[in-house]
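Write out the bound-state structure for flavin mononucleotide.
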Amino acid sequence: MSYKNLSDFLTFLKSKGQLHVISTEVDPILEITEINDRIVKQEGPALLFERVKGSPFPLLINTFGSHNRMLEALGVNSYKEITDRMEVFTEMKPPSSFMDKLKILPKVIELSHVTPKLVSSAPCQDVVLKEGPMLDLLPVVQCWPKDAGRFITLPLVISRDPVTGHRNVGVYRMQIFDNRTTAMHWQIHKDGAEHFRRLRESGKERLEVAVVIGCDPATIYAGTAPLPKDMDEFLLAGFLKKEPVSLVKCKTIDLEVPSEAEIVLEGYVDLNDLRVEGPFGDHTGYYSPAKNFPAFHVTCMTHRKNPIYITTVVGKPPMEDCYLGKATERIFLPLIRKMIPEIVDIHLPWEGVFHNCILVSIKKSYPHQARKVMNAIWGLGQMMFSKFIFIFDADTNIQDLKEAAFKVFSHVDPKRDLIITEGPVDELDHSASQHLWGGKIGIDATTKLPEEGMQRIWPEEMRMTSEIQDLVTRRWRDYGFDGKFKGKS
Ligand SMILES: Cc1cc2nc3c(=O)[nH]c(=O)nc-3n(C[C@H](O)[C@H](O)[C@H](O)COP(=O)(O)O)c2cc1C
Ligand SMILES: [Mn+2]
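---
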């Protein structure tokens, strides 16, 4: 199941009792954050605020804020449905016979059927504004008390590499400066920031940028996904939706946007126009300090007839973005396995706010393999930011933090099993003494081999036989616990 646009998804959520509509007027300054925070912490419904002070447009928040809603946003019952379809491509071997070629054909056709397609007219351009109120119309929230102002927090920022022309879509927050200007907070390691830096190589000073606020949920998710540079996030969106993203040309710039979008900002950033952005209450649970980022100049705003403004508030976990992150953890696992094949599972606990901590289980076949995996992770896309890496044997259920902690505390000799190293850290990390650079630790909680210096026999883990377990389950009533205790855990 896929959704044509945001309203389509809202209709679906409403039918499932997963949308709560609030008709009383609310203030976009802080009040929405506090309401949302109480709801998201209880895995509550998506919230549609019909009357936001100062704006004619309704505001949608907590769209993705539960395990089920995140799956529904991607039109599946489990992430396995997506990874099974991906596996077909990643497992593809070069065809050796005519029959093999025939087998590949439908898969190639499936991919060609989800590449974005261009249409000539689109609902997102029902209304075209080139002057008068533009950003001033939007119900942009101030999230936290010490934020520098109001921030657009869930925009899809679209740009092209000025040298190669490859498109990128990323979710980067935008602080409102005035009716026609915002900041563009693409962090230094992100693809949008690379496009901006490459302006110099191309000899140009301006980079055209289109910003989409609100569209079908799979496309929004794709904007948050850490795809390798030069891979089009709209192709991922099409793959997830099982149908192409339909795009339309912008009115004033040479970029395309999803034709079913709610609101579109067209404009540019300029190499010579950097401004102070922040502070902003971030997904780390702390305020990110003010720093220079490019200013984004709006040349035109277009929108549907009755657009919905989508936003989110980040902060101490669990927040809405945790569910987006979980989707990435699940969807990207098979791709990570292609590069680090011994990996069985990964888990980025929410307390680690994505980059601070990763748990990895591996099928260990040779000495010091845990260290090889740590180093591979520190070299892999946005996983390079991982500050704490824990490596476990394949049979550890790393989704269970209690089981993982038990293994770390019992299997690790701190003198032998730690690597402390250093490297680039996430731009938002506040623990490193210097900006962008800091320490990292790898902790090997796997079973140790003689070749790793282990001079004693590794003990066998105690497990009850299944015969006795079955016997006790069968006889549970005979022991007279009278329903006070469960017969099975
Ligand atoms: C709600 C939300 C807000 C985000 N805000 C930012 C941001 O302001 N700056 C940034 O660089 N990344 C931000 N991200 C993370 C990026 O969207 C993510 O790293 C993505 O992979 C970037 O796309 P890219 O790989 O094409 O650069 C945010 C993610 C979410 C879910
Ligand atoms: Mn990208």
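---
The longest strand covers residues 263-277.
The mean pLDDT is 96.
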